Structures are given as structure tokens and as C-alpha cells.
TrEMBL record:
NCBIfam families named in the record: phnA
Taxonomic superkingdom: Bacteria
Start and end residues of each Protein YjdM C-terminal domain: 46-110
Family: Belongs to the YjdM family.
Ranges for domain Protein YjdM N-terminal: 3-32
UniProt-listed Gene3D superfamilies: 2.20.25.10, SH3 Domains
One Pfam family cited in the UniProt record for this chain: YjdM
InterPro entries membership: YjdM, YjdM_C, YjdM_N
Name of the protein this chain belongs to: Alkylphosphonate utilization protein
Length: 110
């Protein structure tokens, strides 16, 4: 018998299969086994579409972002990003603006 993964929500060890889903009897969380494999990189930085981002990637800003000194327009291409820890998880340089930190939820991989 294959060993089932612990619950991703409460880390309960008593998970069981119910058709195509895995179920946790402790917290009643249900998830698909494919979702368990995807969550292996929980600390990975992902864009607005769920694509994995890495340092050196090129991204496109998906909406206008206002900041104290102006606006980064949606559609702006940002090259050579750097992934960092924190609330704003992307450090980059934007042409005409300079160094800036962005949240990965507002970009998509180019």
C-alpha cells in the first residue's frame, strides 16, 4: 500500500482516498493528489497565472501600479528580476523609474 501525504492544511496524518480526492478527517479538507505534488514547492514564487518565477526571468506587469513617485503602467516589461524573501518578493530595475520591489501577484512571466 502506498503511503498517503499528510494534510496540507492541518498536517494531519490520517488522510484517506475518496474517489479521485484525498480527504483529511481531522479538518475535513479535500484536495486532489496532483495538488499535493504541486504544493511540494510551497515557498516557491509564482506569478499571477501560477507559473514558477526564478531570478533572471523577464516578467510583464499586468495592471497599473501606483507608487509615491508615479505609476508603473500595465504591460511594462521588466527584465532580469531577482527573487527575494518578504511581502514584495521581486526586486528589479524598471527603465525610466529605477530600482523597485514588486509583488509577484501583479506580474506574469514573459
Amino acid at each position: 500500500m502506498s503511503e498517503l501525504p499528510n494534510c496540507p492544511q492541518c498536517d494531519g496524518e490520517f488522510t484517506y482516498e475518496d474517489g479521485p480526492l484525498l480527504v483529511c478527517p481531522t479538518c475535513a479538507h479535500e484536495w486532489s493528489p496532483a495538488e499535493s505534488a504541486d504544493n511540494a514547492d510551497d515557498d516557491a514564487t509564482r506569478d499571477a497565472n501560477g507559473n514558477l518565477l526564478e531570478s533572471g526571468d523577464t516578467v510583464v506587469v499586468i495592471k497599473d501600479l501606483k507608487f509615491r513617485g508615479g505609476v508603473v503602467k500595465g504591460g511594462t516589461k521588466v527584465k532580469n528580476i531577482r527573487i527575494v524573501d518578504g511581502d514584495h518578493d521581486i526586486d528589479c530595475k524598471i527603465d525610466g523609474i529605477g530600482a523597485m520591489s514588486l509583488k509577484s501577484e501583479f506580474v506574469k512571466k514573459a
